[in-house]
Amino acid sequence: MIFPPLNKAWQANNWAYVGEGNQNLVVRYIGSDKTFIGKVLRVVKSNDKNKHVDGQTLLSQKEFVDRVVRPLLGKEYVLDLQPISTGKTFLDQLATHVQSARPSSRLKTKIITDAPLSFIMTDLTQIWPGEPTLTFELKPKWGFKPSCDTVTKIKLLYCRFCMHAHLRETDLDGYCPMNLYSDSPTLIDKALTVLLRSSPQEKTLRVSINGQDTCLMEADPDAEYKALLGISSQQALLPEILKAILIQDPILLILKTLQADLDSLDVENILPLYQQQRGSIKTDIDTFADVADNYKKRILHPDTPITDTQRVLEYVLSMTFKDCSIMINVAPATAEASGHKFVTLDNRLTLQYDVKVIDTDLKKLDKIPYWHELDQGIVSHAIETGFSRQAACFSNK
């Protein structure tokens, strides 16, 4: 579908702030134009190295998702990005319009107002219009520990997330992402109890109801959603919903497998390979599409030879899947929802759900030295301070 251009200032007032990451900001359409109802708009932001962007660079983001991410994840998990022309007048007004809604921690970056195009996507919170929709936005992070025995030994014992939190002096209150990635209902429940109830961490998990964010630190989305469904039980519902979906749906296993397979050597061994070939490695989309194809062939035929360049570029791909987010949308099951996934809880409540992976932008090859430096800082601090914890990250691979 070709969307009409957004190039007038007044059009910006029909979009409401949803959220943002390091590279993009997302707004939801709240106007009356049927063309845009049920859609969100993703606009690109600036950073220290990126003050302007051309159309071809933006289109390459779509091409990366279509040709690399979709074949690796599976098409059911990937949103279509539809390019739309955006004018400076519109983007200037949009930047002003959403400024007050943006978190203070994000204000160092700004919308690139001369970006020639942006992307339209389906608003995942409106898949089932009129139904009480619950949305989880989960950033699962790394789901594995290195299998390569040539890395610093502490990495084989503790997960990277927990050691990084230790470096940043972040209190996780017993949370570990390895619990989420496990196939144990007890461990998943342990992780969700922290994220949803005892010590919410909104950088890891956000919840919205009918598209409206709920602050886990201040509100009770569990009670709110039960009220919408007419459920009076005192038993927590949201953890049970999310646990049932994470157990049933293979998305976390898919992510964990991609992360571990594409990062089979660890950055300690990738850095020397990168340094040997620096300046000679191509990073165009054709190259990454070939890398993805070669990886899939190797999974089918494990004896297939692998080049150093392939290993370096696979590592770059792994960083995309370590830093993505998962959008899980849930609503009461309806007879009209054929084609969607369903889950039934112990209380016999049947829900329909949809899972999409977002924030799957291609990472920069030249960040490998930075990733190595960060890795060594995390590891050195853990060793020097005698990092230890009796948690799942110690015992689960």
Describe the overall structure.
39% of the residues lie in helices and 16% in strands. With 397 residues, it is of the alpha+beta class. The chain has two domains: 9-122, Inositol-pentakisphosphate 2-kinase, N-lobe (Phosphorylase Kinase, domain 1); 128-397, no CATH class. It has a six-stranded antiparallel β-sheet with strand order 8-7-6-9-11-10. A five-stranded antiparallel β-sheet has the order 1-2-3-5-4, sandwiched between helices. A hairpin with a 2-residue loop joins strand 7 (205-209) and strand 8. The termini are far apart. The model has no long low-confidence stretch (mean pLDDT 92).
Would you summarize the structure shown here?
This protein has 397 residues and is an alpha+beta fold. 39% of the residues lie in helices and 16% in strands.
Please give the structural blueprint:
Layout: E1 15-20, E2 24-29, E3 39-44, H1 55-73, E4 82-85, H2 88-98, E5 117-122, E6 134-138, H3 154-157, H4 160-167, H5 177-181, H6 185-198, E7 205-209, E8 212-214, H7 221-229, H8 238-248, H9 251-262, H10 267-277, H11 285-300, H12 308-322, E9 325-332, E10 341-344, E11 350-358, H13 368-384, H14 392-395
Antiparallel strand pairs: 1-2, 2-3, 3-5, 4-5, 6-7, 6-9, 7-8, 9-11, 10-11
Helix pairs in contact: 1-11, 4-13, 6-8, 9-12, 10-12, 10-13, 11-12
GO biological process, one term: inositol phosphate biosynthetic process
Protein name: Inositol-pentakisphosphate 2-kinase
Pfam families: Ins_P5_2-kin
